[in-house]
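Lecture notes, continued. The same structure-token format from the folding unit now serves as the input rather than the output. Read the line below as a description of shape only.
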């Protein structure tokens, strides 16, 4: 059954958002929490995902680099990949501004997630 003037079946409009959340839940969320995260018990790690966008935070850079390699392999197994323009490691922590200034590399980078620009700064 089609809606008048529609070229798509109405049930597809409702099924796609559900499937768009179920598949990443299995491929990314469960894998992170049940398979990947237990391998780094000495570190903090967090994932925030909305539909097919996600941000992962790590206490140590070495785990961020390892996760990036591992998630690329994981997604490739399903014929998926990370967007090259949206995927990068960003120093985003308490002393990022001071550490970057000492290294002479300028202000911390920002990143966009869910329509907001996240900026690692402090105000007093």
């Amino acid at each position: 059954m089609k809606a008048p003037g529609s070229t798509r079946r109405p049930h597809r409009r409702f099924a796609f958002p559900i499937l768009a959340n179920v598949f990443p839940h299995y491929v990314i969320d469960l894998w992170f929490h049940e398979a990947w995260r237990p391998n780094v018990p000495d570190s903090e790690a967090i994932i925030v995902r909305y539909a097919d966008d996600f941000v992962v935070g790590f206490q140590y850079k070495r785990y961020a680099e390892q996760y990036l390699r591992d998630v690329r392999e994981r997604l490739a197994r399903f014929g998926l990949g990370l967007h090259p323009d949206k995927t990068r490691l960003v120093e985003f922590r308490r002393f990022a501004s001071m550490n970057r200034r000492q290294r002479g590399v300028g202000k911390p980078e920002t990143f966009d997630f869910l329509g907001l620009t996240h900026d690692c700064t402090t105000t007093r």
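Point for the exam: Strands lie at 45-50, 53-58, 111-113, 116-118.
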